[in-house]
Specification:
Bound molecules: adenosine-5'-triphosphate
Number of strands: 10
Strand order of the largest sheet: 6-7-8-3-9-10
Structural class: alpha/beta
Number of helices: 10
Radius of gyration: 18 Å
Shape: globular
């Protein structure tokens, strides 16, 4: 893992009808890092991901990815630059098998024409089997996506993002609705992805955060409130105060 900052968010701000949802947010994330972004409801976490992937435009500040400003690029250009986003609601093709979903995800890579020309060839099949194995769906390749469990559907969506080979992947509450066992498997998957991909994971499940986190950034009222290890964060009085009224940090 390098120590280079792959992503630098500098004083990022955005307002909705005069309400500052993200306010002078600063984040630095190293290449290959697995960063957790936590904070009470309404802290601005999803909006921060929206700003990074270009879904929402900054009203102030800048976002630099691999040394280049990206905040004026289109969402599509940001994706092409190597930033993938997993939304809360999966967008898999439910009528198609896992294999066919992965074929489509794989052929949507940059240079799609070249991919279509080689569609179905052995390299393609190997990539698809490798992706399925990576996310634990190697036994479900012929299963229609509609028959997958909730957790398996999320993993398929993650595999579709991985098929694009983004350097940075933004995940919004990936374990929401998962069983304890699925959450555990997702933690193992994310740990495997670290190093090769940079991950920013917005998560409320502190058990999951504890399992995967290296550095945790805590947002509150649109700002960065604290940053550090799980021990630093759990013992930070300002963080505890921010979570008052939402049942405490462990119940966020
Ligand atoms: N498009 C929008 N228009 C108006 N207000 C918005 C919009 N998007 C977000 N907000 C507001 O900005 C604030 C931050 O929302 P955001 O969804 O980023 O928080 P969050 O930390 O992800 O919360 P949660 O953990 O509940 O998902 C909230 O008060 C929300 O209502």
């Amino acid at each position: 893992m390098t120590t280079e900052n792959q992503l630098v968010v500098e004083n990022a701000s955005v307002s909705f009808s005069g309400f500052r949802a993200v306010s002078d947010l600063c984040l630095k994330v190293r290449a290959g890092e697995l960063r957790c972004l936590i904070g009470p409801n309404g802290a601005g976490k999803t909006t921060a991901l929206d700003l990074i992937c270009g879904k929402t435009r900054l009203s102030g500040g800048e976002i630099v990815f691999k040394g280049k400003p990206i905040h004026r690029l289109s969402e599509h250009a940001i994706a092409r630059a190597g930033i993938g986003r997993k939304f809360q609601v999966p967008s898999v093709f439910r009528a198609l098998s896992v294999r066919d979903n992965l074929h489509i995800g794989h052929s949507r890579k940059p240079g799609v024409l070249a991919n279509l020309a080689t569609f179905g060839q052995s390299g393609d099949t190997e990539d698809i089997e490798r992706l399925a194995e990576l996310v634990g769906l190697e036994d479900e390749l012929d299963t229609p996506a509609a028959h997958l469990s909730h957790g398996q559907t999320q993993w398929l969506e993650i595999a579709l993002i991985l098929a694009q080979d983004p350097s940075l992947i933004l995940m919004d509450e990936p374990t929401a609705g998962m069983t304890a066992q699925e959450t555990k498997k997702t933690a193992q998957l994310f740990t495997r992805l670290g190093g090769r991909h940079t991950l920013i994971v917005v998560e409320h499940d502190m058990g999951f955060v504890r399992d995967i986190a290296q550095t945790i950034s805590v947002m509150h009222q649109g700002k960065l409130l604290a940053e550090g290890s799980i021990t630093d964060i759990e013992s930070n009085q300002a963080v505890r105060d921010a979570y008052l009224g939402s049942g405490g940090i462990g119940h966020a």
